[in-house]
Amino acid sequence: MATNRKTYEISVQPRTVLGKHSKKLRREHVLPAVVYGYGVDPTPVSVDQKEMERIYLHAGSNALVDLKLDGAGDGKPRKVFIHNVQRNPVNHVLMHVDFLAVNLTEEITTNVTIVLVGEAPAVERREGLLLHALDHIQVRALPTDLPPLVEVDISGLEAVDDAIHVSDLKLPSNVHVLTNEDELVAKINALPVEVEEVAEEEAPEAEVGAEGG
Known about the structure:
The chain has about 210 residues and is mostly beta strands. It is about 10% helix and about 40% strand.
């Protein structure tokens, strides 16, 4: 099913500050980044950190972004993916971003996140536990056809051992799934058996012997 895709835009600036000196940029809330890929020599750039966080929150890694490099070339934006991000392991603030320029007429291979939607009746009735076994699938498609995510409806999981496999996923015909179709996506597992602990009988206390006379 065709969907109207939101267009994301971001402006970057040429960057001459490289390597360890990039710390200075981060202190000024400017993020070091690089643009590379189709028709682009690897180019160091910088981008406003707050704006980058906002775009990445909504676009993720599978939505095309119109990237405009200020003061360069003909000024026309390039179609890119936010290909890779590095975050500070302590506070999770963005540290570096890779923008991948793509050819809109060539298919690419990437991972797409699986999101479970709905409620499983077996879980609602407390008859089983939901196992989310697969969090992404690998697909191949034109950049403009890549789904941002794959929604999987679990409302049909009625009983223990009911399952959804990759072969059950519904994707447009122009998106080719590369993950093995037998891979398990979600399943209802039986509830764990409760083992009743048998209380040990307390041994009778030994009687105190009669006092000697």
